[in-house]
Amino acid sequence: MQVDVLIVGQGICGTLLSWFLHREGKSVLVVDAGLENSSSKVAAGVINPVTGRRYTTSWMADELMDFAGVTYATIAEELGTPLLYKKSIIDFFPTPQMRNTFIERLTENDTYLYAYPDQNHFNPIFQYDFGCGEIGPAFTLHLQVLLSQWQEKLKQRGQLRTEQFRPEDVQHEDDAVHYHDIVARKIVFCEGTGGTSNPWFSLLPFSSNKGEALILECDSLDRQHIYKRGMLLVPLASEGLFWLGSNYQWEFEDDKPSPTFYQTASQLLSQWLKLPFKIVDHKAAVRPATLERRPFVGFHPQFPNIGILNGMGTKGASLAPFFAHQLAQHIVYDFPIAPEADVHRFSRILSK
Ligand SMILES: Cc1cc2nc3c(=O)[nH]c(=O)nc-3n(C[C@H](O)[C@H](O)[C@H](O)COP(=O)(O)OP(=O)(O)OC[C@H]3O[C@@H](n4cnc5c(N)ncnc54)[C@H](O)[C@@H]3O)c2cc1C
Fold first, then answer.
1. Ligand 1 atom nearest to CA at 317
2. What angle do CA 91, 278, 281 make, to 5 degrees?
3. Structural domains of the chain, with CATH
């Protein structure tokens, strides 16, 4: 079988890269192991333009959000299902200091922060002592819907193999990559945390961290907002279902849900949410994060047919459309990749 690009992994990165390449008329084959707790399958799919305790605007927020909006709308039209929902984040301040920081940022005229007019509005629904502010626009991407629907499309076109990819079986020449019965012009690894053991890219400064979430049923909670108090409470695709998370663990024994998180999160919820709810699931995954919080995009400095799209960290839903597009344009038209994301910035490390 001959293809233009062989893609390993169908999380958000492999999904979007295969979508952009397909639109450019390139043939692709995606190999995915079907990992149940991949980062993309556990994520809430929130696109939040603001980050951290100082309410700083995220890196490239305007550009990334605009691009993500157009991309997901186009895919949604093609798949015949809505994917992206506009929301605002109601931020319940955990301390008076956080409230002050928010107000300071408001007075600096931050684009994404708003004072919430009626501070008592959420009293019947949530317990909060220090008021609330509003962040917007934010979005939720229905990641599981996108992944599963795109998987179906790939299957129908004979472009998906559900199996573990074995990098040791790859043979590469200057103009081709051979893998079992497949001959590809290029191979791109979109393996999420699998990238940390990839023979060509494992030396990149990954900083993987584990995160967990509870899934709960709460029929009467308004779905037009995302709610935040320490953790995020996010409406999911299915009516009545919400996602609560998350935490960040850089040292962990395994990638499984832990009793400690369950206890902390359920306790937070019972002190915060006044409406009846029922916890129905508990999930965990490892985020493919990077030390300098920028993605890994592009081709190996020594092996120009072997590429990577990875390192989306906590922001796969907003970063992946922009950088999957850049990589596709690079493959098809040789357009440049943003230097902050291009793996060529690690040429020395990768040449060891
Ligand atoms: C708890 C939690 C909450 C999060 N919330 C958000 C959020 O709200 N918003 C946001 O933007 N981001 C969020 N993230 C981060 C987001 O999930 C990641 O940035 C993104 O999903 C990474 O996507 P990926 O495609 O790089 O990797 P993954 O989703 O991990 O996909 C990798 C794919 O590669 C496959 N694979 C790996 N190795 C092999 C192999 N050898 N052979 C075959 N297949 C292979 C796996 O099966 C998998 O399907 C969250 C993450 C976690 C853990």
1. 11
2. 90
3. 2-42+144-205+292-350 (3.50.50.60), 85-138+207-287 (3.30.9.10)
